[in-house]
Amino acid sequence: MMADTPQTTVLIGSDGFDLDPSDETSIIEEMAHYEQPQAACIEALKIVQRRHGWVPDSAITAIARLLGIGPGEVEGVATFYSLIFRQPVGRHVVLVCDSSACFLTGFQELRQALVAQLGIDYGQTTEDGRFTLLPVCCLGACDGAPALMIDDDTYGPVSPEDLPGVLEDYP
């Protein structure tokens, strides 16, 4: 005879997250553009990320509840898209393009210079919380390779010598 084992349910996030009222309004407005509410999932994640700088686990459940879909669906979208941050990031996110064009035109030197100047590697944030360094597979800036993006600003071609001037614009 098998012993009874308790059933457990694993929830993504928690019920403790409340969407900001203006974010909730923005998500509802975004949902109105689509026949299916789940189509607004990416934009809902971006809305939350704009306010918090990243998407906490507890926000997944709140977004899912508002969209009327399961939290697993929202989690799947959030983990698929590399520009949805699932952990805290610095005030400025530096994305270094490692596409073929960038690789062939100096990506490695640019990456090494960034690592040396910031004192961090991919996936890390500077001690002062100023920068997080991440790779990205393509910025669509092949004509300006090697390229990088800081927040919403794309730079290229960028040489290691250009970095101090570029980074100083991001306090």
From TrEMBL:
Give the catalytic activity.
a quinone + NADH + 5 H(+)(in) = a quinol + NAD(+) + 4 H(+)(out)
Write the record's keywords in alphabetical order, separated by commas.
2Fe-2S, Iron, Iron-sulfur, Metal-binding, Oxidoreductase
GO molecular function terms listed in the Swiss-Prot or TrEMBL record: 2 iron, 2 sulfur cluster binding; metal ion binding; NADH dehydrogenase activity
Cross-referenced InterPro entries: NuoE-like, NuoE_dom, NuoE_N, Thioredoxin-like_sf
- UniProt entry tagged with the keyword Iron-sulfur: yes
Q: Which Pfam families match?
A: 2Fe-2S_thioredx
Q: Which cofactor does it need?
A: [2Fe-2S] cluster
How does this protein assemble?
Composed of 13 different subunits. Subunits NuoCD, E, F, and G constitute the peripheral sector of the complex.
What name appears for this protein in its UniProt entry?
NADH-quinone oxidoreductase subunit E
Organism (species): Marinobacter panjinensis
Q: Output the lineage of the source organism.
A: Bacteria, Pseudomonadati, Pseudomonadota, Gammaproteobacteria, Pseudomonadales
